[in-house]
Amino acid sequence: MSAWYDAPMQQSFEKAVDLLVARYPQYTEEAYEFMRVGLDAAADKFCKDDKSPHLSARELYLGACAHALEEYGPLAGKVLEFWGLRTARDFGNVVYNLIEVGIFGKQKGDSLEQFDELPDLQRILNAPYDGSESPLFNP
Fold this sequence. Notes:
single chain; mainly alpha; disordered N terminus
């Protein structure tokens, strides 16, 4: 997924989100805004080379999870769940919805199915608080 969302945008982010929320009501406006900010956080963490701002599904997901933990702490899981983000596939759905309307970009080889192979969301978000090993620190 491209870390820069200035791909051919025929509409503003807000209008795109309104369209997506109407089309996919299982995800809230906040889910899309979170993914936009989460993409930036992941890009800051993983894109050291400005010439290639592309993120893998794993990098975007883990970077966004780390951002959720920084922002919401032990409530991260509940906050994301309230917005409709319950699984890695939900992250992928929101990303691909944003691709669909031209907000995010993708490269050849990127696929929604890549999100199905990622670690369990609740495991990642609970790990700092239950003492288990986190995939965030063992990518």
